[in-house]
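Hi U.,

Before I forget, here's the chain from the pilot set. I'm dumping it here mostly so it's searchable later in email.
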Amino acid sequence: MHAHICDPDDEIAVERFKSTFKQLGAKSVGKSWGIGVDVLDFQIGEAVITVFSDTWSIDIEGPEQLVQKVLQPLFLHRR
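Structure:
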């Protein structure tokens, strides 16, 4: 599953995203680059989630259950 998290200049949303990753125990397991996009892999439990970061957006991709787990606290803060 792929999901848009926020724009990289939205400092509040970026901090919430980082906090959520920390709370979930995300561990960095890889970093690469592709045509202007930083690609970061994080392990949360047994699954790996990929973060795509560029000038325009921060997105994630991974197993649906894990992506939903990351999105849930982010959307709770937006209400």
